[in-house]
């Protein structure tokens, strides 16, 4: 009997020990999707210099970690993730995984990215811990990318592996971090309402194009603030995407768009800029007010494009007709499902590849 108890104890200890992971602080690893790598606040999208300069709404949204991703490699058969959410935020029309979860991808031999697993946040605490995968072939060094939360901030992040394995900086320089695509826009661009972080269209484009994409989506607050234009202009961008129309009234488009573009053009006279029309949201089929508003906004943006493109050969236009939306690929007739994001991303990718 004593032998049975001893054997059972050894088995339980073995299981517990195998379940324990060795954690590495992800702050020592490369961070993609940021123009503020030296910010005091971990995993933020705006630099310290803009605190008390931009509107409070912008500053608070800048602390959301949309579009940020950590790159690493490991030979462990198990990958665990442990993180602290800044706000423990929830919304009625978006999954908790998309809002404040994480999304792990692996680089395949053909240099494409394959989803491994999204990890779910705790409902009861700011602190979450979960194993993304537990039984891979051990000793195979794999390259990974973990996308951070879209609608909450990540205060801290740790990557866990089995005790005899390691976490190291990546060897493969993908996605390329030089000449990033810098995208500015609304809640849609921030990632609402993707089911998981990797399905925001900026993250899809990053993987497909193997080029870093900076997500400057500010939910409800893409109002052509000049401070954001100046911040964008300081980057070494390969292209800019300007997509704020759902948050702008027609008067703001007329009054602020030229100035916003002028700020960027002053430092980037030849960098491609893509102006994106507001999508034809499905609700416009039933709401006359929405229909007339969307048409008016897009007509005014098109007029600005026609005037400026006459003297700017590097200004491009992405019309609403190319943004394929219907009631099957939106959550609430406005925000995209994963299918909506994939369609949008693939359309923009065609234009970016042609550039």
List descriptors.
single chain, 355 residues, alpha/beta, six-stranded antiparallel beta sheet, five-stranded parallel beta sheet, 15 strands, globular
Question: How would you describe this structure to a colleague?
Answer:
With 355 residues, this protein is α/β, with parallel strands linked by helices. Helix content is 30%, strand content 24%. The chain contains nine helices and 15 strands. The protein has helices at 2-19, 56-62, 96-100, 187-190, 201-209, 226-233, 250-267, 288-309, 338-354; strands spanning 22-25, 31-32, 69-74, 79-85, 102-107, 113-119, 127-133, 142-147, 154-161, 167-168, 176-185, 211-217, 239-243, 273-276, 315-318. The strands form three sheets. Strands 2, 3, 5, 6, 8 and 10 form a six-stranded antiparallel beta sheet that branches. Helix 8 (288-309) links the parallel strand 14 and strand 15. Helix 6 packs parallel to helix 7 and helix 7 (250-267) runs parallel beside helix 8 (288-309). The longest helix has 22 residues, at 288-309.
């Amino acid at each position: 009997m004593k032998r049975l108890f001893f054997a059972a104890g050894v088995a339980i200890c073995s299981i517990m020990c195998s379940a324990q992971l060795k954690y590495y602080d992800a702050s020592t690893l490369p961070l993609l999707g940021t123009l503020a790598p030296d910010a005091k606040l971990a995993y933020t999208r705006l630099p310290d210099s803009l605190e008390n300069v931009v509107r409070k709404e912008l500053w608070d949204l800048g602390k959301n970690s949309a579009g940020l991703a950590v790159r690493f490699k490991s030979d462990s058969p198990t990958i665990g993730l442990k993180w602290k959410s800044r706000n423990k935020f929830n919304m009625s029309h978006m999954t908790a995984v998309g809002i404040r979860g994480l999304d792990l991808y692996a680089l395949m031999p053909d240099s494409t990215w394959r989803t491994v697993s999204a990890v779910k946040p705790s409902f009861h605490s700011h602190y979450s811990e979960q194993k993304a995968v537990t039984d891979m072939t051990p000793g195979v060094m794999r390259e990974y990318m973990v996308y951070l939360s879209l609608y909450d901030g990540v205060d801290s992040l740790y990557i866990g592996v089995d005790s005899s394995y390691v976490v190291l900086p990546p060897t493969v320089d993908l996605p390329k971090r030089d000449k990033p695509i810098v995208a500015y826009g609304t809640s849609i661009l921030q990632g609402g309402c993707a089911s998981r972080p990797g399905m925001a269209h900026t993250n899809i484009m990053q993987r497909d194009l193997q080029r870093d994409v900076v997500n400057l989506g500010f939910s409800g607050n893409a109002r052509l603030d000049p401070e954001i234009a100046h911040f964008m202009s300081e980057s070494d961008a390969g292209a800019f995407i300007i997509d704020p129309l759902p948050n702008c009234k027609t008067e703001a488009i007329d009054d602020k768009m030229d100035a916003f573009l002028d700020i960027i053009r002053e430092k980037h006279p030849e960098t491609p800029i893509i102006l994106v029309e507001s999508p034809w949201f499905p609700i416009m089929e039933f709401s006359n007010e929405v229909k007339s508003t969307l048409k008016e906004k897009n007509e005014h943006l098109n007029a600005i494009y026609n005037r400026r493109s006459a003297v700017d050969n590097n200004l491009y236009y992405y019309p609403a007709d190319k943004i394929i939306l219907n009631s099957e690929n939106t959550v609430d007739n406005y925000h995209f499902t994963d299918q909506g994001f994939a369609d949008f991303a693939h359309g923009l990718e065609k234009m970016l590849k042609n550039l």
